[in-house]
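re: that chain from earlier
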Amino acid sequence: MAIIVNLDVVLAQRKMSLTELSEKVGITLSNLSILKQGKAKAIRFSTLEAICEALDCQPGDILEFRTSDV
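^ sequence. v structure.
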């Protein structure tokens, strides 16, 4: 997958647990876990906005595009 989710990195930098983020954002722990593991197929802008607000970060801090070296 070319889109890398760095949610675990940002959470560690903010010393915040996934459970705490779930409570702040109002998103289920299972949905955040799916996103954190990079298994999500899509993310709503409203969800991304809420996560960024709770973590005081930019979308680019959480999502990264990597090209594949072929």
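The first helix runs from residue 7 to 14.
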